[in-house]
Specification:
This protein has five helices and five strands; from the N terminus they run βαβαβαβαβα. The protein is of the alpha/beta class. It has a single domain, classed as 3-Layer(aba) Sandwich (Rossmann fold), CATH 3.40.50. It has a five-stranded parallel beta sheet, with helices on both faces. Helix 1 crosses helix 5 and helix 2 runs parallel beside helix 3. The protein starts with a strand and ends in a 6-residue tail after the last helix. The mean pLDDT is 93.
């Protein structure tokens, strides 16, 4: 099944790398250079909602945590799975992600793009209703 994935990261190289991996697997991908871009897109009337948001933690202006806090406050993309994709791997980061209701946390340095793809699909499908 194809999913709509939103990738949010201030690193253009990584955005392009992950976008290519997901697109080659048949998924629709939208990329954003930061939290402000993501929030603006989600606020647009008729915006297509993603199945999952893969968001970096450390970004200029709004961090990934700040962005998800605002997303929750404004009740945007309520059905989307939130997966933090970061090089930050401190216990405090995991706790903050959990507190924000994240569905996953992937450390970039520990996962190759195909593993990120597989984990994202696993998280989306774990909550998908079973159709008989």
């Amino acid at each position: 099944m194809a999913y709509h994935i939103y990738l949010i990261d201030d690193d253009r190289f990584l955005l392009d790398l992950y976008a290519l991996k997901f697109k080659n697997a048949g998924h629709e991908v939208s990329t954003f250079n930061g939290g402000e871009e993501l929030l603006a897109a989600l606020r647009e009337e008729g915006a297509k909602m993603p199945d999952a948001l893969l968001i970096d933690v450390i970004m200029p202006n709004l961090t990934g945590f700040d962005t998800i806090e605002m997303l929750r406050k404004e009740q945007l993309a309520k059905e989307a799975k939130v997966i933090f994709l970061s090089n930050q791997g401190q216990d405090s980061d995991f706790e903050k992600a959990k507190k924000l209701g994240a569905d996953g946390y992937i450390i970039k340095a520990s996962a190759i793009p195909s593993e990120v793809l597989a984990e994202t699909v696993r998280i989306i499908e774990a909550a998908a209703p079973v159709v008989a």
